[in-house]
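User:
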Amino acid sequence: MIRAQWNGKVIAESDDTLVVEGNHYFPCDSVAQEYLRDSTTTSHCPWKGEAHYHSLEVDGETNRDAAWYYPDPKAAAAEIKGRIAFWKGVEVG
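Assistant: Predicted structure:
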């Protein structure tokens, strides 16, 4: 079982993550949605496409743009559609 934790809370937990470029992508239904806040931030990856972000909010603390996902990934990265990855101090393991 792989867990993503931040600020003392489990943000995501699954035995069905996909590892791409060293990042665990969790199925959306394994993520505790109550900790996610929409963000307007986007970025572009040449082979995956346009990434969108969520900030995390736990116990009054915010970790801006700590989660990302590809709502419409390019064909080469189709397997990560419907999945979310984490960074910025989120412990994954």
